[in-house]
Specification:
4-stranded antiparallel beta sheet; mainly beta; 793 residues; 50% strand; 2 helices; 5-stranded antiparallel beta sheet
Amino acid sequence: MKTENIYTSVACNRTPACLDWGNNGLVVYGACCGICLLNVEFQQSAKIVRTFVKHEKPVNCVKWIRRLNGEKVTNFVSGGSDGLAIMWDISDEITCNPIILKGHSNAVYLIDGIYKEKEIFIATASSDSTVRLWSIVSENADCFQILNLGKGICLGLVVSILPKYNKAILAKASDDNSISIWVETDIPEKSNFQKLHNLKGHDDWVRGLDFVITNENDLLLCSSSQDTFIRLWKISPRTDDEECSNKKKGNNEIEIEENLFSVSDNSYKNITVAISVESVLQGHEGWVYGVQWYKNSEGIIKLLSASMDKTLIIWEFDADIGVWTERFRLGEVGGNSLGFFGGKFSSDGKSIIGHSFQGGLHIWKQSEINESVWEPRITVSGHFQEVRDLSWEPGGEFFFSVSADQTTRIHAPFKRTDGECSSTWHEVARPQIHGYDMQTIATIGRYKFASGGEEKIIRMFQATVDFIKNFRSICKISTDQEGDEILESLPKGASVPSLGLSNKAVYIAEETSEERPLKDEYPENYYASVSLKAPPQEEILMQNTLWPEIHKLYGHGFEIYALSSSKNSKWLASSCRATSAEHAHILLWDTESGKHVQKLMSHQLTVTQLCFSPNNEYLLSVSRDRSWTLFRNFSNNGETNFMLEAKSEKSNGIHTRIIWSCDWSHDSKLFATSSRDGKVVLWIKGETESQNSLKKWKALECLEIPGQSITAVCFAPHYFKDNENEYLIAIGFESGNIRIYKFFDTFEHIRTIPKEEAHHLTVKKLQFSPKCGKMLLASCGEDNFVRIIELKC
């Protein structure tokens, strides 16, 4: 059996400098403890092509190691909260040859690197109040200098090569609002890098730095600050045979101060540079977090700045008037977003990528027809906190996921009409943006779902007219199992009122010439109807893809933990966090009316997962009390009646630790339970009834994997290779691995999906698509990832 990752949904870390754009459309960015390599030119959209896993704690920064000669970049460096910096080589497709730079005693949050002849020079800044300088030659890494900051911290870091001298130069921003310039020297008895000068001018913390070499062989240093200003500093090397003057004249005969600074060096009498303020740029209204230079083959220089005012600005030098001017302004409009953490140019300067506070990615590409137009491009999106649950809709066309980032998201395939043979999966809607961390979700039919978060309320939602039309357009669905009749009763869209948590329906009526009431001229919503033929951008997802809330279900005393709906969409079962039998009950709800219909008691502690059998005859529950319970459906004449059928106990339950997960086989003959003790047990109903609590149910087979906590289990929706009674089972681990087994008389291991292709933290949920045809396995985990893996038999 082969496996192929066909979809990975994950957003950037909410961290500055955690994204960088290299050659050939490849973007590298940090996602929790992993690093993703994103191809933004894949079929006119974007796709995650590879994941790198080595850090044990969140990745804080990533940077491609630049080559000033324009050669292809194949190495990048990353820094994490585990105190490690790692250099990767993507030219090695198997191992990536990671070189670990170990030395910091706390989180590495800033990093930069550059090629210098046959040597790679890397600088890393850590919250241990040090900046370490590294030299890598032939895979041998050496920390040759440590800059001690005392009680201070470094807020910006960039390295380059000083022209004429061919020496490495470093600029670092400190928490005293200043920028210090350090230059490499060759004096053996002293430190390799000596401090040249402190640049002062900003009134608040400097958050972004970048160097560029001008056509005159000078260095331009750009600095951006929380004072909303951008400053350009010109650093001009001076050699002995050059005439050095303390002042120079501008275009308008204004004398610009130019100060000379020197440090001693072994190969020269000294290294001398002239430093002056080239320009001060004002255009942003919020903190400016990131800046980047771009220089094309013709020597034209552009500057990109990213700000918390929700905009990215491209600056260009106007030679006619001799000043830097704002050329283009891109970004978001409206909504509740908090702006951009950073932005990067592509290698040809015709595309821009930015990442925002919510972890979203934004890509714009310059129009080939009109260069003054920048068009938004299709990109990847996803959760920026751990993903706790997912659920397919009954037809298998799309699925939902919920996360600790307080959102519910819908993922579906984008099918093209431009001749591309394959489709790519994307986030197509964000039906719930909440004020609490989300915990669990259950689909109720095709266009309805219920979700529970870290509150005592279960909320039910129904789709909107706009979502259904856009979903059909994006996925190229001409006929829908629900039909067009459903559109007549649904609202156009939904919005969240100010200071509210409940999505309200929005009905947009036809415009009339009658004068509207004053209150209707200023509606309390941000919803705008949109017609989509491709996956929406981040700002549309945040504002215009919400679903209205139709029911609130009250009854639990603590935070909602698990939900499950029956396959006929008639019942919804729920549980909450519990430390006693009083709160460990299961509540059954009628999905049409939203009314509570039954209370089921059995467990002593939190019910961790619930699952209805495919034939709607049984409800299975597993708990932290190390037991499972089976309730049987005796409902008739419209009255709900589930009664206790069987229950495991310490003497017969096999599991000795928390049971995390459970699932039914597609024929309702078997169910599986998985536990922290590393066991997966299959249970079947026998012919004779025992005298213990299991009644007719008995353990059919037990798979034990010592030392592994098994956190997720699921059955495939049909027999394996159509062989009767041969089941396919997926198992997820706390380590992040996923294993595929088949079962006939015993478990047979088929394939292990490693961390790089599965998850690098705990797998929270596994579920196969119910759609016939391709065998798609969806998974989610604590590493922020949502993945779809295609299993090819």
